[in-house]
Amino acid sequence: MTIHKNPTIEYNVIFGTIELKSPYLWPGTNPSKPLIDEMDIAHQGRSVTVKRALSDFGIDESFSIARRKFKEHYNFGIGISTVDRTTKEIALEASTYIENKLSNASLASASCKEKILIELDGCEIRTALMGEIENSDERTPVYSNPKKEKVIKWRDVRLGFARPLEEKEKVFVGKMDCYPKVINQLHSVAELIGMTSESEVIGVADGGIGLSEELKRQFPDMQFISDKSHLRDHFYETAKKMGICKEEQRKWVESRIKKISNGLVNRIIEELVIENDRKPCTRLKRLIGYLNRFNDALYYGNFKEKGYPVGSGEIESAHKSVPQKRLKIPGASWHPKSINPMLALRILRADDWWEDFWDEKTEQLLAA
Known about the structure:
Elements: E1 2-5, E2 8-13, E3 16-21, E4 24-26, H1 34-37, E5 45-46, H2 48-58, H3 63-74, H4 80-103, E6 115-130, E7 138-142, E8 145-164, E9 171-175, H5 179-192, E10 200-205, H6 211-218, E11 223-226, H7 228-241, H8 246-261, H9 265-278, H10 282-293, H11 300-305, H12 313-321, H13 324-327, H14 336-350, H15 354-367
Parallel strand pairs: 2-5, 6-10, 10-11
Antiparallel strand pairs: 1-4, 2-3, 6-8, 7-8, 8-9
């Protein structure tokens, strides 16, 4: 084989753009371009270190700010579209890395933890699609072509974590997906940190339809706790619909919440049933159904004595630092297919798997 062509290509490394000769070897049964085939070096390509820096900035800030920060730190420019594309490519790899890690969670050698706390909650992320045909309350013009418009839709992203009850360090999972798939990931991270058949599992969440049922299906022996503030909201909404004046609402609600916390759930249900028989109210009927549905998940006084949390504030706060810090910045809208990979990259950082992810990428590059 001889060098048939030998063009000069440009390649981005952390010190700037360098020029390399990229020979094309021919003839033969297997024509070769060694830089591309053996070293993954192509024209306008980027080294692993550059990709790491771009995705590091791109997962924390808007792509325009990430571009400015990259230039500030490394003293050469990269286009916004390059930051966008590189960050999303790494995000896809991060998603695969997490899936692989969780699929092997049952093989993890973590020591058995006596008590495991899990929490799960959702938030909405703004998405935009060109020409999507469905009902939407919001549309926005495409700046490059004012005759076109994007359809805006808010979609549920579910975030959860697992941690030993007596420890603070937690492991997150999250996806824009149905409860069974997200909770399956949650089960995997619980195994990853030491959940066994002997562990006591405590789950805290709100009363979302299908949420508690799926948690109990995948964690059969779990003690489910319905978020106390969510219950309080139910009572206030009911009091308002019943026509109780604003000055009396707090007294009506808090007295009943206190009794429920002390284990008198059934007595409160009986009182509410009598009230509903006397003056029927659809919202009151819904509240009675809620209390019956979560009867064993409302004994807050008893839960507190055992050291269990009675609210899902921990996961609600995590929404601000994990998905929302990047995916919900002012003015941002995402293609639905970008949300899960970008969230995976955020979770990679939150779970302290960032270094392991890049070490694995380097090992794969050296092995090739």
